[in-house]
Design a protein that fits this description.
Elements: E1 2-7, H1 13-21, E2 26-31, H2 42-46, E3 54-57, E4 60-63, H3 65-76, H4 89-122, H5 128-160, H6 171-183, H7 195-205, H8 208-217
Parallel strand pairs: 1-2
Antiparallel strand pairs: 1-3, 3-4
Helix pairs in contact: 1-3, 1-6, 1-8, 4-5, 4-6, 5-7
Bound molecules: glutathione.
Glutathione (GSH) binds near residues 11, 39 and 53.
Length: about 220
């Protein structure tokens, strides 16, 4: 029995989407964020980390979206539809690289940006100019140029390939989707420089399983 604990506007959308791609039989519980934009304490009762996603497999709680994805593919993707076969070295390397790149490189920058935006939003009027100044400094010195380099790498990959792991859609696309959605928030990605990324986003979101996941768990908004 699979039971997904999903938090609104969160990385757990990845697992919901994959479960839909797999046509798996699962139970879904969706949690609302609290006033501080954090997960409710009730998630800590399922797993001490209290983060989403948590996938309970026969009541054993699994965490980390990359690990959960690999677990689901190993046990439920019998035709190996969502991961390249080991013998296709290039596709396998691309799949593995982008699966890790999303969580290890892109998401930390997006979370840092989100945290500083929240700090500005929540700071009292009197000190807002100071927090805005700090946010700008962090954005300029630690976020924007690294993110631009990463976006250029992604753009290059999608210029040469239809999907992140080559010609076929894979779970690497699912893992990357929220990262690209986050980078596309606010003013949005440059329509010329990042045309391949924007077209890839559309292709992802046209998938019937993606649409079903949005109906069940809501769309991720940054
Ligand atoms: N590396 C973890 C990150 C999990 C994570 O931080 N989830 C966020 C949602 S995007 C969360 O639960 N945040 C709520 C909180 O920190 O209280 C993964 O990929 O599963």
């Amino acid at each position: 029995m699979l039971h997904l604990h999903h938090l609104e506007n969160a990385r757990s959308f990845r697992i919901l989407w994959l479960l839909e791609e797999l046509n798996a039989d699962y139970k879904l519980t969706t949690y609302k964020r609290n006033k501080s934009h954090l997960a409710p304490d009730s998630l800590k009762k399922i797993h001490p980390l209290g983060h989403a996603p948590i996938l309970e497999v026969d009541e054993r709680p699994l965490v980390e979206s990359g690990f959960i994805i690999e677990y689901l593919l190993k046990h439920y993707d019998k035709q190996q539809e969502f991961k390249p076969v080991d013998s296709d070295e290039t596709a396998w390397e691309d799949y593995t690289f982008w699966l890790h790149f999303s969580e290890a490189s892109v998401m930390p920058l997006l979370v840092m940006r989100l945290v500083f935006t929240k700090v500005v939003q929540r700071s009292p009027m009197l000190i807002k100019p100071i927090t805005k100044g700090i946010r700008k400094q962090v954005e300029n010195s630690m976020i924007s140029s690294s993110l631009e380099t990463m976006l250029n790498m992604m753009e290059q990959q999608l210029q040469d390939n239809h999907w992140f792991a080559g010609p076929a859609f894979s779970a690497a696309d699912i893992q990357m989707h929220i990262a690209v959605t986050g980078a596309n928030a606010g003013p949005g990605l440059d329509k010329v420089k990042h045309v391949n990324l924007l077209n890839w986003l559309k292709r992802c979101e046209e998938r019937p399983a993606f649409k079903r996941a949005v109906e069940k768990g809501g769309r991720v908004k940054f």
